[in-house]
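Quick start: read one record
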Amino acid sequence: MHCAACVSHVERALTRVEGVQSAAVNLGTERASVEFDGPASRVTELVAAVESAGYSAEILAEESPGRAAESDLAHLGRLRRELVFAVVLTAPIVA
């Protein structure tokens, strides 16, 4: 997804699936949160709806708060390494 129109397109595709209460797509994380009534087997219908709209989809398990914190720490570590790398490469140019 590249823009707000893509987000809207995916949200519409998801809300058209029977039993969907609401669908919210986050452009930055490229993830969708969907509330729906019915059996868990309906999740495959949601994936099919997104794919028929022209986008890829996969089912992610709900993260526990501990796993989310670990994921955030890993992301921060990667950002820190990238920052150090950028500073090291920029310093000779600025000096």
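Helices lie at 4-15, 43-52, 65-94.
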